[in-house]
């Protein structure tokens, strides 16, 4: 009884909403605007005939509408999305952004992917259009090689904007200072373009920003201290630009930051110790910058770190053993630096570490990592190119599997006994070759000697016992 009543009410509701929807009008101007915009994008002259009522009877997957109840109920177009997921091929060769976008004043989302591709018809961001779409919350124009020109400063009129995502286009020029007025902006992605100049101070106005991606551009100058004001930032990617100078201590205030990628720039060290405030940092990627300092202290205090990468940073000094207190660490890359001293054996007790690259440094002494650790990492343990490094674990050398050969380091004390030669230029003789059949007579001698000495010890023990 109850369930049949429920079915009846649901049925009634559907009939009623169906009727209501049929009664709701669409603004004629908006509809014409949509047809113009589609016509400028798609090679589909019949679009208007095929989808005359895109909000009701003839929906199209890339268009969404909402009913507004301002005066009388009216449908408005609130989302326009073009991409290979909606139509393939998505756009015509001479696709363009029609000024008729201005007739869609209720548009909240405009996303166009992989559409403007023909170099013979470049497309620009018109200040008239993008200064006026003031309902827009989400603007994503990505992977459009012929979308070029500058970001119009009028874009900063769209104060409702939450997402500005313009990666992989051919945009250039400076990041407009006026963008700092976008107080609701949560994501700013300008990666893989050709933007130049400096990060404007006004970026400090983007109070809601949680994602900032400026990677793969031509940006220069110092990393602006105003970034330290953006307390909600979780991701900063400034990689592959031309940033130089020192990092601002203010960045250390970003206690929500999870990812910081500064790789491939010209940033000088030392990195400020205020970075110990980045208590949620998981990814610290600094590769290929002229840091030229020792490994910073603060690294040992960031207990959330899972990945640390300082390849090619000119680091000097020793590998501090406090790195071994970072229990969540999964990857550590310190390769291609000038680190000296020994490899802290405690690194081998990091429970989650599965990638350790210490190659191309000046590390020396005996490598004392647990066998279990060496087996676990296999090829992902790289200690090549450290001429002073050796191992006395001859068992390791007998295990002729790949992980052992990958270590490519010679035996320790034994080399002096066998080779009897301290000439450091004679490195070739001290490095294992990468071929499993390269049986090295030296090792066998070493092993024999070891076996011999332990046999002697054993004999003495037996004699004493007797
Ligand atoms: C694209 O549209 C703009 C105006 O919206 C116009 O000035 C430009 O010439 C058009 N480009 C092409 C290639 O049609
Ligand atoms: C990027 O911009 C610079 C000037 O800032 C220019 O020299 C360079 O040719 C541009 N690169 C591309 C791929 O457009
Ligand atoms: C950083 O680069 C700019 C040019 O891009 C230069 O004027 C400035 O002197 C450089 N600063 C440092 C500290 O190297
Ligand atoms: C090592 O770092 C230097 C810069 O410090 C760089 O020029 C070189 O390409 C790097 N080598 C490797 C193998 O990454
Ligand atoms: C370690 O870093 C060097 C560059 O310094 C690179 O050539 C090598 O492939 C890396 N090893 C591993 C295992 O990733
Ligand atoms: C190397 O040999 C050990 C046992 O001797 C084995 O546990 C390990 O999995 C082997 N590693 C590789 C990469 O084959
Ligand atoms: C290796 O050492 C042997 C003698 O111990 C010497 O004859 C040989 O020339 C050395 N090889 C290289 C490449 O230095």
TrEMBL record:
Tell me which positions the record assigns to the signal sequence. 1-22
Main localization category: membrane
Q: What Gene3D superfamilies does UniProt report for this protein, alphabetically?
A: Ribonuclease Inhibitor
UniProt subcellular location: Cell membrane
Biological process (GO) annotations held by this record are: detection of stimulus; response to other organism
Tell me the InterPro entries matching this sequence. Answer: Leu-rich_rpt_typical-subtyp, LRR_dom_sf, LRR_R13L4/SHOC2-like
Task: Kindly indicate whether the keyword DNA repair belongs to this entry.
Answer: no
Q: Report whether Glycoprotein shows up as a keyword of the record.
A: yes
Give the record's GO CC terms: plasma membrane
Q: Which domain of life is it from?
A: Eukaryota
Domain (Disease resistance R13L4/SHOC-2-like LRR) spans: 154-367
Q: What keywords were assigned to this record? A: Cell membrane, Glycoprotein, Leucine-rich repeat, Membrane, Receptor, Repeat, Signal, Transmembrane, Transmembrane helix
The annotated topology with respect to the bilayer is:
Single-pass type I membrane protein
SUPFAM superfamilies referenced in this protein's UniProt entry, alphabetically: L domain-like
Q: Which regions form coiled coils?
A: none
| Name of this chain's protein | Disease resistance R13L4/SHOC-2-like LRR domain-containing protein
């Amino acid at each position: 009884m109850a369930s049949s009543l429920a079915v009846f009410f649901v049925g009634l509701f559907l009939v009623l909403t169906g009727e209501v929807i049929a009664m709701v009008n669409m603004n004629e101007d908006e509809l014409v605007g949509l047809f113009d915009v589609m016509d400028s994008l798609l090679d589909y002259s019949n679009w208007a005939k095929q989808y005359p009522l895109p909000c009701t009877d003839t929906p199209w997957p890339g268009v969404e509408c909402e009913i507004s109840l301002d005066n009388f109920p009216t449908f408005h177009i609130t989302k326009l999305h073009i991409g290979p997921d909606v139509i393939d091929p998505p756009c015509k060769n001479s696709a363009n952004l029609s000024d008729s976008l201005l007739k869609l004043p209720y548009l909240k989302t405009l996303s166009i992917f992989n559409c403007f591709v023909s170099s013979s018809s470049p497309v620009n961001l018109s200040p008239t259009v993008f200064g006026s779409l003031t309902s827009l919350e989400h603007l994503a124009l990505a992977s459009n090689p012929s979308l070029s020109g500058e970001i119009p400063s009028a874009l900063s009129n769209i104060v409702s904007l939450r997402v500005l995502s313009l990666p992989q286009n051919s945009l250039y020029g400076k990041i407009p200072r006026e963008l700092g007025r976008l107080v609701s902006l949560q994501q700013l992605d300008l990666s893989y373009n050709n933007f130049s100049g400096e990060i404007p101070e006004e970026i400090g106005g983007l109070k809601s920003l949680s994602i900032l991606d400026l990677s793969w551009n031509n940006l220069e100058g110092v990393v602006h201290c105003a970034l330290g004001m953006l307390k909600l930032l979780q991701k900063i990617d400034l990689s592959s630009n031309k940033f130089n100078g020192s990092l601002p201590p203010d960045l250390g205030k970003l206690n929500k930051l999870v990812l910081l990628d500064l790789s491939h720039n010209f940033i000088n060290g030392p990195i400020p110790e205020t970075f110990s405030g980045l208590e949620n940092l998981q990814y610290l990627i600094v590769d290929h910058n002229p840091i030229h300092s020792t490994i910073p202290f603060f690294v040992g205090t960031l207990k959330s770190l899972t990945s640390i990468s300082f390849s090619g940073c000119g680091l000097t000094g020793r590998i501090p053993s406090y790195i071994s207190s970072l229990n969540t660490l999964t990857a550590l890359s310190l390769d291609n630096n000038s680190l000296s001293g020994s490899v802290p054996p405690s690194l081998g007790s990091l429970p989650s570490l599965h990638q350790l690259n210490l190659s191309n440094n000046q590390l020396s002494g005996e490598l004392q990592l647990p066998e279990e650790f060496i087996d676990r990492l296999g090829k992902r343990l790289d200690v090549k190119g450290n001429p002073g490094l050796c191992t006395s674990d001859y068992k390791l050398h007998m295990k002729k599997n790949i992980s052992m050969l990958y270590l490519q380091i010679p035996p320790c004390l034994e080399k002096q006994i066998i080779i009897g030669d301290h000439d450091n230029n004679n490195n070739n003789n001290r490095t294992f070759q990468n071929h499993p059949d390269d049986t090295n007579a030296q090792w066998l001698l070493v092993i024999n000697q070891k076996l011999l000495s332990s046999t002697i010890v054993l004999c003495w023990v037996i004699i004493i016992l007797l």
